[in-house]
Amino acid sequence: MARLTEDQTHYLLYIHASQKERAKAINGRRWDPERLCWMYPKTPSVYREIIAEFGEELIENTATPASASISPKDFHEEINSLKDAVARISSATQSDSELKKLLTQKEMEVIQIREALALANQRIQELEAENNYLQAQVKRGNQLDVNDLLKKIAVEATGSDSLFMRTIDPLPLDTTLPIQLSIQIDQQLKRAMKISDENANFADLISQARDAEILDKPLVDLCHLIRKQRNILVHETVHPKTVTARVILCLFAAALLWPNLPEA
Q1: Which of 38, 186, 195, 242 minimizes the number of CB atoms within 10 Å of its CB?
Q2: Burial (Cβ within 10 Å: 0-12, 13-18, ≥19) of residue 247
Q3: Is the distance from CB of 64 to CB of 121 less than 8 angstroms?
């Protein structure tokens, strides 16, 4: 169970200590050791986050949604101003027509204020959606830039080999890259040793290339590294955070190996 109140500048959330991680996930949170509650800035987005997270558990909610264009305080002051105007009109014994005219004017002003609040909240939602979209685009753009940079470095390590460039250019930096690299190296070794058996094992091909002195030990090690990482990614369960590192390891191992492979 939870309680939500407010002061002039903050929302005040009272929850059980076991729920603190949920409270900490809401933007702008700060712990108040004196009142033993979580404090949040009074903004529309923060109010929505609190209600989304704890709304069904609130046994008390005396807080009001914050406004971007006019505060609840200003709104209430306008209402009070209307009441004062009515009182002044009554005390001055103004005519009914004048009173109705003034009341109508004030009612229109209240309607305009409400419409301004609704438009402001709508604009806030639109801006938040635009911000989320732009952040996603920036994140995606940064990822593409990093992938392109890694591929560019790898190609340069091969001496800008055109076959290597064509091999990796369309591939994403995921588990498909080690597989395609293994296939390309396999084909080049078969052509170099004139092996027509399409079922020849990659590990056996590497050993035959070593025995035929086509590959020296450092190159053999690079071939086996690519083969082993390919097998791990395809046949074993690995921690998701290591997948990209393994793929990049295969990319640069192939870049170092490529200039020393027999020509097709």
Answers
A1: 242
A2: buried
A3: no
> Residues 220, 209: contact at Cβ < 8 Å?
yes
Write the CA distances from 95 to 71, 84, 86, 251, integer angstroms: 34, 17, 12, 89
Q: What's the one-letter identity of residue 225?
A: L
| pLDDT tens digits in sequence order for the chain, 264 residues long | 899 999 999 999 999 999 999 999 998 999 999 999 999 999 998 999 999 999 889 999 998 887 655 456 545 654 665 565 556 556 665 567 777 888 888 889 899 999 899 989 988 988 888 888 777 766 665 555 788 899 999 999 999 999 999 999 999 999 999 999 999 999 999 998 998 887 888 999 999 999 999 999 999 999 999 999 999 999 999 999 999 999 999 999 999 999 999 875
**Residue 103: Cβ-neighbour burial (10 angstroms; 0-12, 13-18, 19+):** middle
Match 């390919």 to its residue by tokens: 230
Contacting residues for 3 by C-beta, under 8 A, at least 6 apart: 13, 14, 58, 59, 60, 61
60 token code pair: 């008390």
Cα(229)–Cα(225) distance, integer angstroms: 6
Q: What is the pTM of this model?
A: 0.46
How long, in residues, is the chain? 264
Q: Residue 61's beta-bridge partner residues?
A: 4
CA distances from 74 to 28, 32, 42, 71, 77 (A): 24, 27, 15, 5, 5
Q: What is the DSSP letter of 262?
A: P
For residue 253, count CB atoms less than 10 angstroms from its CB and return exposed for 0-12, middle for 13-18, buried for 19 or more.
buried
CB-based contact 188:226 (threshold 8 Å): no
